[in-house]
Every structure is written in structure tokens, then in C-alpha cells.
């Protein structure tokens, strides 16, 4: 029985990891990789493949199927989701004909509420939790540029089939993906969320890249203030995050190319929709829920939600 894996979203995350899967299983009789794409990305990938560029190499990969048509896509055993968080409901409902009760869904979004949102749409399905550490972006339709040294994927679930998760882990490992099936996945996802939420909020609020945040007193002050607020919420929620998480995240930034910025900042600069609700407003709402004050997050949200008034 062939295992069919859909990749929804061919951006920095879905394009990179989906590309590794497509490369590894292009000739496989047992595993089929399906790219779910539309518009210019669909056209380019259909004709010329998906190009992945790193600082050391380039490769072009071809999935078995690339389509946005549920009939062409067909039934899926696994669906890996990596669109923007504001597209979760619309993109997944459009694939209802591809999702059976046995389809395992792995969300790799920037936020922490994706599993709950997807489970509301598909209550009978096993929806995992997952996150990635990667600095990767769309250079142009069908071209992914990976600029960092870290490309790591974490996933897991307290309730999903261990057999199916281990099978997926084997598929990842055989594709040379640095993947980790972990027991304490909620802690892991929140640790990543702390990293990306603070970085996205700080870079957009200050209009700074990572190097400017690290070099500027103002940048570091805003960054640390945001860190203090979100980690306090995590502590009140009872999550087990590293005690030195602020220092750990700063060290991660220092290992990143200084001219790199967050995906939300890139979207803001390009005039595109941004993930403000999932990465900034969500923290404010959690603060209200757990009676933790978030004044710095509120400053960021007020400025970015009313840019003409700022």
C-alpha cells in the first residue's frame, strides 16, 4: 500500500522540507509526495521543478504530483501544513475531499493554536503538534532560499497513533531531515513560539533586522521586554521551558546571519498580510486569560494594527 504525503504550502518551511521529501522519494514505489500549490508557484514547479538554494548547494526537485485540484491530489495518508496561519481554515477546508478519517495532519505553522483550530475542522482526525527551526524564504515562485545553518523539525502528540508517528519519523529520517519525535511536544512547540513570536514582534515594531536588534540598546531592551512577558505566560500555564530561555534565544540570534529578519517583517515590508493575530495578539489574549500584563506586546500590536496612526 502506497503512502501518500501532501505538502500544503511551498514557502520557506513547506518548500524546504517538502523538497527534501520529494528528492528522497522521487523514484519510490512505496511513498508518493504531493505538492499542493496554485498560481505562479504551481506553474513554475510543474514546468521546472522546485529549486532549493543553500549557501553550499542548489538542487531542483520534482514531486510525483503538483496540483491544487482535490481530485488530482487524491486521498492523503499524511498532510503536512505550512501555509500562513491566517490561511488555516480556508486552505484545509478546500482539501476536504483529500482528507479521510485516517489522514494524519502535521501542522508546521508559526503559532501554537493550529492543532486546536484544525481539530475543530476535522474532529475525527489525528492532528499532531509540530514546529521547525529554519531561516528560509521564497526567493521567487518555485525557488526557496535557505539562509541559515539550522533546519530542524519537531513533532509529536499525546494521543495520536505511535505507530503512525514512528512511520512518519522513519520517512523523515530517510529523507535526511533533521527530525525529532518528542514526548513533551507542547513544551517544544511553545519554546519555538517564544522564539518566533518575540522575533516577529520586535523586528516589525522596530523595523530592525536581527543584527540591528543585537547591536542596539533599544532593540535589545524591546526584545528582552517581550521575552519577559511571553515567558511569564508560559510559566503561569505550567509549561516546562528552559530556565535560561532568554539567553538561549539570544545565542540563537547571534548564530544567524545579521541581515536576516523574521518572515512577518519580510511580509510587512512587502505590503503583504501579516500573522499579527497568531504571533502578537494571541500573546495579549493569553495574558488576559492568565492575568499576566503584556504592555510591550500591546505597544507592538497597537502600532502594527494601526500603522497610519503610529
Overview of this protein structure:
The protein is built from 13 helices and 11 strands. The longest helix is centred in the middle third of the chain and has 22 residues, at 185-206. The termini are far apart. The chain is globular, with a radius of gyration of 19 Å. Helix 7 (185-206) packs antiparallel against helix 9 (217-236), helix 7 packs parallel to helix 11 and helix 12 packs antiparallel against helix 13. The chain has helices at residues 12-24, 39-48, 70-73, 88-93, 114-121, 162-174, 185-206, 210-215, 217-236, 245-254, 263-269, 276-290, 295-305, and strands spanning 3-8, 31-36, 50-53, 58-61, 65-67, 76-81, 99-107, 126-127, 129-140, 143-156, 178-181. The protein folds into 2 domains: 3-183, NAD(P)-binding Rossmann-like Domain (Rossmann fold), CATH 3.40.50.720; 187-305, N-(1-d-carboxylethyl)-l-norvaline Dehydrogenase, domain 2 (Orthogonal Bundle), CATH 1.10.1040. By secondary structure, the protein is of the alpha/beta class. A 6-stranded parallel sheet has the order 5-2-1-6-7-8. Strands 3, 4, 9, 10 and 11 form a 5-stranded mixed sheet that branches.
SSE blueprint:
Blueprint: E1 3-8, H1 12-24, E2 31-36, H2 39-48, E3 50-53, E4 58-61, E5 65-67, H3 70-73, E6 76-81, H4 88-93, E7 99-107, H5 114-121, E8 126-127, E9 129-140, E10 143-156, H6 162-174, E11 178-181, H7 185-206, H8 210-215, H9 217-236, H10 245-254, H11 263-269, H12 276-290, H13 295-305
Parallel strand pairs: 1-2, 1-6, 2-5, 3-10, 6-7, 7-8, 10-11
Antiparallel strand pairs: 3-4, 9-10
Helix pairs in contact: 7-9, 7-11, 7-12, 7-13, 9-12, 12-13
Family: Belongs to the ketopantoate reductase family.
Protein name: 2-dehydropantoate 2-reductase
Domain Ketopantoate reductase C-terminal: 184-304
Amino acid at each position: 500500500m502506497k503512502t501518500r504525503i501532501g505538502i500544503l504550502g511551498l514557502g520557506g518551511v513547506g518548500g524546504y522540507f517538502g523538497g527534501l521529501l520529494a528528492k528522497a522519494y522521487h523514484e519510490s514505489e512505496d511513498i508518493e509526495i504531493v505538492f499542493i500549490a496554485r498560481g505562479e508557484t504551481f506553474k513554475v514547479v510543474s514546468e521546472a521543478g522546485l529549486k532549493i538554494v543553500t549557501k553550499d548547494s542548489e538542487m531542483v526537485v520534482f514531486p510525483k504530483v503538483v496540483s491544487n485540484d482535490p481530485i488530482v491530489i487524491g486521498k492523503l495518508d499524511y498532510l503536512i501544513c505550512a501555509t500562513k496561519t491566517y490561511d488555516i481554515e480556508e486552505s484545509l477546508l478546500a482539501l476536504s475531499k483529500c482528507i479521510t478519517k485516517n489522514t494524519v495532519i502535521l501542522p508546521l505553522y508559526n503559532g501554537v493554536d493550529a492543532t486546536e483550530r484544525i481539530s475543530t475542522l476535522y474532529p475525527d482526525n489525528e492532528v499532531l503538534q509540530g514546529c521547525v527551526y529554519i531561516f528560509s524564504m521564497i526567493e521567487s515562485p518555485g525557488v526557496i532560499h535557505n539562509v541559515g545553518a539550522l533546519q530542524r523539525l519537531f513533532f509529536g502528540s499525546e494521543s495520536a497513533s505511535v505507530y503512525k508517528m514512528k512511520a512518519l519519523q522513519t520517512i523523515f529520517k530517510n529523507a535526511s531531515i533533521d527530525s525529532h519525535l518528542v514526548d513533551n511536544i507542547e513544551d517544544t512547540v511553545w519554546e519555538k513560539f517564544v522564539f518566533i513570536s518575540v522575533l516577529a514582534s520586535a523586528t516589525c515594531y522596530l523595523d530592525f533586522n536581527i543584527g540591528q536588534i543585537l547591536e542596539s540598546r533599544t532593540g535589545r531592551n524591546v526584545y528582552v521586554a517581550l521575552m519577559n512577558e511571553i515567558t511569564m505566560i508560559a510559566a503561569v500555564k505550567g509549561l516546562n521551558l528552559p530556565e535560561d530561555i532568554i539567553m538561549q534565544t539570544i545565542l540563537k540570534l547571534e548564530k544567524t546571519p545579521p541581515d536576516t529578519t523574521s518572515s512577518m517583517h519580510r511580509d510587512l515590508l512587502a505590503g503583504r498580510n501579516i500573522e499579527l493575530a497568531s504571533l502578537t495578539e494571541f500573546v495579549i489574549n493569553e495574558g488576559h486569560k492568565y492575568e499576566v500584563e503584556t504592555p510591550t506586546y500591546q505597544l507592538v500590536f497597537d502600532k502594527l494594527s494601526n500603522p497610519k496612526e503610529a
